[in-house]
Amino acid sequence: MGIFDYFKSKSEPSSASVAKDRLQIIVAHERSRRTQPDYLEQMQQEIIAVIRKYVQIESDDVQIQLENTDDCSVLELNVTLPEKN
Amino acid sequence: MAKIIVVTSGKGGVGKTTSSAAIGTGLAMKGHKTVIIDFDVGLRNLDLIMGCERRVVYDFVNVINKEATLTQALIKDKRTKDLFILPASQTRDKDALTKEGVEEVLNELSKDFEYIVCDSPAGIEKGAQMALYFADVAIVTTNPEVSSVRDSDRILGILQSKSRRAEQGSSPIEEHLLVTRYNPERVSEGEMLSVADVEEILAIPLLGVIPESDAVLKASNQGTPVILDTQAEAGQAYSDAVDRLLGEQRPLRFTDVQKKGFFKRLLGG
Fold first, then answer.
1. By three-state DSSP, how is residue B225 classified?
2. Do B201 and A16 touch (CB under 8 A)?
3. From CA B219, how far away is CA B7, in angstroms rounded?
4. Where are the strands (E) in chain B, listed by range?
5. How many domains does chain A contain in total?
């Protein structure tokens, strides 16, 4: 860092911290998918296809999650329906 | 029983072969009989890095197919005592490595050697999975850069689910992080992920940090493992990593910016 660098604006976050933030998000996302069973993805696609027969939704309007507790597994399905006009 | 160490990363070009050569050599220098196996079928390169490319007669696949014995295929290193190299085949047949064949060779080597270092190919395909399947210890080689860190996390997932230890439910593979091509100046400028960042994201214990160094290219040009360059920071950093792998305590070196003179700081650069 030379004397001229002190005149540059300091407001921008460093590229390394941007990299770290992006990595933390993508790695957490990929880890959660890793622990879920393989069929979940396909099941999600099929559920979306069924809902689409009746309501127009985007694929990210459906969140599907499998949570394992000690003695049972909970399949959580979250569908955001479009607002009525 | 030998300890099987896989040097892996997911991403290519991060320094797996350089690290396998350096760590294998380091273990042998410490008096442990070691063999380094090149698992990169079709893209053999460990022989070049170790400087024994002209002595390859038989390879790993020849041994698996019983076209040669292990004794015929193993190349004894000329510089380091107790060090042997098992070169990869240059065949284009991707199915040349079978789980049974690899297991048989590893069992045979286990009788004679203390450490078996498996130099994994890049990717997450069969070759990479074969290299890590039988491992006791994994050295995850990572550059402080987004794609390398993400791929390392991917490989960690595979180590935890597709290895023999995972499948048999025995104690998990011991995982170690090796950060390579580290540039402390760029880290201090906020242009490169720090060791702490990479450790925090991957959440596995740190084995070592190898600084970006001209010595690495020079060593590979000459076919000498960089750990033998005791003058170079990279060589010394690999020595530290080997010591830590053997359970010794070594403080981290070469991760801070070297102090610059007053004028150099004032003028930049």
1. coil
2. no
3. 19
4. 3-8, 34-38, 75-76, 83-86, 115-119, 137-142, 174-182, 206-211
5. 1
Cβ–Cβ gap B190/A16 under 8 Å? yes
In this complex, which of A4, A14, A23 lies closest to B268 when CB atoms are compared? A4
Tell me: the pLDDT tens digits for B167-220? Answer: 999 999 999 999 999 999 999 999 999 999 999 999 999 999 999 999 999 999
The Cα–Cα gap between A16 and A14 comes to 5
Q: Which of A1, A23, A34 shows the shortest C-beta gap to B189?
A: A1
Question: CB neighbours (10 Å) of residue B226?
Answer: 27
| pTM for the model | 0.86
Contact A26 B150 (CB under 8 A): yes
The three-class DSSP label of residue B176 is strand
* B153 has a chain A CB within 8 A of its CB: yes
In a domain, B218, yes or no: yes
Look at phi and psi of residue B56 and say left if phi exceeds 0, alpha if psi is from -120 to 50, else beta. Answer: beta
Domain containing residue B221: CATH number:
3.40.50.300
According to DSSP, the residues that pair with B246 across neighbouring strands are none
**Domain membership of residue B110 as a residue range:** 3-246
A61: CATH: 3.30.1070.10
- Report which of B42, B5, B36 is spatially closest to residue B18, judged by C-alpha positions: B36
Contact A19 B193 (CB under 8 A): yes
Identify the residue among A7, A20, A26, A31 best suited for mutation to test binding to B, counting B beta carbons within 10 A and taking the highest: A20
Cα B51-B110-B226 angle, rounded to 5 deg: 25
Tell me which chain A residue has its CA closest to the CA of residue B263: A2
Q: What is the ipTM of this complex?
A: 0.85
